[in-house]
Amino acid sequence: MTITQFTKVAASSLLLLGSIAVSHADDVSRGLEIAKEADKRDTGFVDSTAKMKMILKNKQGQTNSREVKVITLEVEGDGDKSLSIFNTPKDIKGTASLTYSHALNPDEQWLYLPALKRVKRISSKNKSGPFMGSEFAYEDISSQEVDKYTYKYIRDEKLNGTECFVIERYPAYKHSGYTRQVAWINKQEYRAEKVVFYDRKNTLLKTLTYAGYQQYLNKFWRADEMLMVNHQTGKSTTLSWNNYQFKTGLTDKDFNRNSLKRAK
Fold first, then answer.
1. Is beta strand 192-198 parallel, antiparallel or unpaired with respect to 204-216?
2. Neighbours of 82 (CB within 10 A)
3. pLDDT band at 116; cut points 50, 70, 90
4. Which domains occur in the chain, in start order?
5. What is the DSSP string of 44-103?
6. What's the pTM?
7. What is the mean pLDDT of residues 80-103?
């Protein structure tokens, strides 16, 4: 190869690499913009209460269920606060979980165990652990703030007849149980339709699907059902939601550690 030929090949390679870099940057920017728009459309609900039935299914198809009350407080400039109170079955009645979600710092989470009459703090390094024996991890139940991830737009795709953006999101928190998540975001409403989770080895772990979306206050979309399937264990958890209410007057006082012990 002559010097001239070598120079031409090198120049072509640099142009190709430059084009790939620009394309990647565009995909990253677009992924972030999709995430920001989704967050923007769910901002302003102030607070909410809802009832939830949690159905646990093992690999053999056997099930057991729990009834839970969930209250949430929107926090301006940070992640939401949420409190989950278990009402059934009898052996865990009164158990309560409190979460302070954060955008840039590790989430803070506590669990009240009535049998021991004490509040246990969940380690910030153990967010991948199962929440109350379900297929939802502790990090799954905190609010999904934009700054918790970096993003990349992958493609447009139809999911069950619905036009979606497909984006990848990469947890910024080093102790996350996931290397990445692939999310299908409804193009019209900017709500999640499906999320696929990959574990720390970048192996397929779980799939979360949403169904029965309903709109509240002419703005906020909430799914009636969320199904989390663990592909590695064969187990699944279904969350069935009802009786949503918004702007009920909740305050910070309803979300402190003392509220765990008196929660009903």
1. antiparallel
2. 20
3. confident
4. 40-262 (2.50.20.10)
5. ---EEEEEEEEEEE-TTS-EEEEEEEEEEE--TTS--EEEEEEEESGGGTT-EEEEE--S
6. 0.89
7. 94
